[in-house]
DNA sequence: TGAATATATGAACATATATTCATATATTAA
DNA sequence: TTAATATATGAATATATGTTCATATATTCA
């Protein structure tokens, strides 16, 4: 198993990042359109701080990217793998109901 | 967002379950062939107890199924969504290197 | 410049969770 | 039945992590 150590680690990190309700909600918001911190925190009903912290996590995991426009920072999904992962996961989850 | 509360919850749970190195390794083992606890613990170098606990988690998350054969319990992946999720995730992870 | 707005971030706290250890259950073989 | 083997599981410990609070930084506008 040793040769795959880094891969397992990276995969675990990716899934760990997706394994939180707040981050899931944020990613769903961003799958609709790019948004800034206040937009998101209003939509999901959490403090700016909590959202900002989680966006930092998501950015560190390269799942979202940020573009500064004036005072605001607009976030969007980094690539389309994320949405595909959601689609598959939703399929799995719904089948089990 | 309220109408999706359960979905977010289920998705978070699914990804949370996949967000652990030990469970990732176990799932990789089982993607090769069905195995019992001792096989897995030897392959990944962890105690039976740790593996058994994690298999219980994976089973509760409906990601693996178990069949008892004599003294041994053989585990295998519950469905092929899991492998597809891995494939996509690996794609994402590898692109970022 | 100063005030207001948007975001980021460090520290602290609370909670969740993975592993270990000890023990229990179940099956097979002697 | 007893011993051996395979697995399961409860409790305890250690660690990781999410949220809050306070504060810092950056940008815009008056």
Structural description of this entry:
The structure is a homodimer of 97-residue chains. Chain A is α+β, with helices and mostly antiparallel strands. Chain A has one domain (2-95): Winged helix-like DNA-binding domain superfamily/Winged helix DNA-binding domain (Arc Repressor Mutant, subunit A, Orthogonal Bundle), CATH 1.10.10.10. Helices cover 64% and strands 12% of the residues of chain A. The first copy, chain A, has helices spanning 5-18, 21-32, 37-44, 48-60, 81-95, and strands at residues 64-69, 72-77. A two-stranded antiparallel sheet of chain A has the order 1-2. In chain A, α3 packs across α4 (48-60). The longest helix of chain A has 15 residues, at 81-95. Chain A is globular. In chain A, 30% of the residues are buried. The mean pLDDT of chain A is 92. Chain A binds chain B through residues 1, 4, 7-21, 24-25, 28, 43-45, 62, 79, 81-82, 84-86, 88-93, 95-96, and chain B through 1, 4, 7-21, 24-25, 28, 43-45, 62, 79, 81-82, 84-86, 88-93, 95-96. Chain A binds a DNA duplex (30 and 30 nucleotides) through residues 16, 20, 22, 36-38, 46-57, 68, 70-73.
